[in-house]
Amino acid sequence: MKLVSIETIPGTEFEAIGLVKGTVVQSKNFGKDFMAGMKTLVGGEIKSYTEMLIEARQIATKRMVDEAESLGADAIVGVRFGSSAVMQGAAEVIAFGTAVKFK
Q1: CA geometry: angle at 79 spanning 78 and 84, to 5°?
Q2: What is the dihedral sign for C-alpha 66, 67, 70, 72?
Q3: What torsion do the CA atoms of 64, 69, 72, 75 make, to the nearest 10 degrees?
Q4: pLDDT by position in tens, the chain (length 103)
């Protein structure tokens, strides 16, 4: 499955099938959340949250691809990611784009 953030794939003709998306709400355990809170006192990257968001993006992307495959798509164009805090220590990540079939 080809994934691109642009709206076209150079040298390829395709027809749009429809919007596809994948979403996940991800959280870290209390111990890591507590340590992340401590990190805010001294500054710097909170690696446990970085890892959480990387994992969440991977899960959301896989779910988006699975939905596109179920529609018979060859690629997804215009891929975007969004995120929002659901509660302290938990974030929703969504991946979305347009599933397309090559002509």
Answers
A1: 130
A2: negative
A3: 60
A4: 999 999 999 999 999 999 999 999 988 654 555 555 555 556 677 787 888 889 999 999 999 999 999 999 999 999 999 999 888 778 899 999 999 999 9
All structural domains of the chain, each given as residue ranges with its CATH number in brackets, are: 2-102 (3.30.110.70)
Q: Tell me the pTM.
A: 0.84
DSSP 71: T
- Six token digits for residue 74: 């060859």
Q: What is the spatial distance between Cα 9 and Cα 52, in angstroms, rounded to a whole number?
A: 31
CA distance 88 to 95: 21
Q: What are the backbone dihedrals phi and psi of residue 39, each rounded to the nearest 5 degrees, phi first?
A: -65, -30
Backbone angles phi, psi at 84, to 5 degrees: -155, 150
